[in-house]
Amino acid sequence: MVHFVGAGPGAPDLITLRGAALLKQADVILYTGSLVNPALLDMAREDCRIYNSAEMTLELVLAVMKEAHVQGREVVRLHTGDPCLYGAIREQMDALDARGIPWDDTPGVSSFCGAAASLGAEYTLPGVSQSVIITRMAGRTPVPETERLEVLAGHGASMVIFLSAGLLEEVQSALLRGGYPPQTPAALVYKATWPEEKIVRCTVGTLAQSGSEIRRTALILVGGFLSGGYLRSKLYDPAFTTAFRTGCEPCS
Ligand code: SAH
Q: Are 108 and 79 spatial neighbours (Cβ–Cβ below 8 Å)?
């Protein structure tokens, strides 16, 4: 059995209880060494075989999984954050299906949630934005034409940009071309929830200049949710009736 497991954003105690239990019992661990906090490997059994997938091809990863499967061993494939975002898991799952190797998937705390927690931010503020766009700049992996950053910027929604900290100039000009005013709040969060986490708060207009020290393992957050006003929630408004509570109207 191969268990895909979300490692969380960095802090080792942000893995789920289920993920930790799987790590502790694994015979083989394949972890994304470029991003996963190696402190998580302290949970592994002493006799566990540990592979850093950052140095491997998909073919090699699959060969290790297949060998372990034939030997009846439990494999954990440890991906950073939640495996469902930029995790390249689908190609592994499809290949495992083709080989008749069973797998399951345990979610994790994505870095975009870790970054919001570090900033004390809520992406979905009433009166500001009710949508979060998760995207990236095109790099060696292409982005569909209709999802170009400047097209998505046109929504003015809360935005989280992955895998693009090395392209800040391009990100900044795409956001401006797309219509975010230069004074729109922005933030760079480097290694959210790790001990060496760094937060840079800036605006869309100063993004490239403010983040010149930050290159890898960082998220770019953009939108009015990062500062300024918002409307009070309806859910907790005394006058608002919900399925669980009757509102008072007029309220004293
Ligand atoms: N599945 C992961 C994303 C993997 S893509 C998740 O859910 O978070 C790798 C990119 O994620 C990095 O280039 C960076 O943009 C972002 N990232 C991953 N961990 C991060 C962290 N702790 N802090 C900030 N950004 C992070």
A: yes
Distance between CA 63 and CA 69 in Å, rounded? Answer: 10
The Å distance, Cα 228 to ligand 1 centre, comes to 26
Q: Which residues contact 60 (CB under 8 A, 6 or more apart)?
A: none
Going by alpha carbons, the residue nearest to atom 9 of ligand 1 is 163
Ligand 1 atom nearest to CA at 136: 15
Mutate to test the pocket of ligand 1, among 163, 217, 221, 222 (most ligand atoms within 8 A of CB): 217
Q: What is the pLDDT along the chain (252 residues), one digit of tens a residue?
A: 999 999 999 999 999 999 999 999 999 999 999 999 999 999 999 999 999 999 999 999 999 999 999 999 999 999 999 999 999 999 999 999 999 999 999 999 999 999 999 999 999 999 999 999 999 999 889 999 999 999 999 999 999 999 999 999 999 999 999 999 999 999 999 999 999 999 999 999 999 999 888 888 999 999 999 998 899 888 888 888 888 889 987 787
Could you tell me if the CB of 186 is within 6 A of ligand 1? no
DSSP H or E stretch at residue 31: strand 28-31
CA dist 127 → 119, 157, 201, 229 (Å): 20, 11, 22, 8
Order of strands, sheet of 49-52, starting from the edge strand that comes earlier in the sequence: 49-52, 28-31, 75-79, 2-6, 103-106
- Test site for ligand 1: of 15, 78, 80, 216, most ligand atoms within 8 A of the Cβ: 80
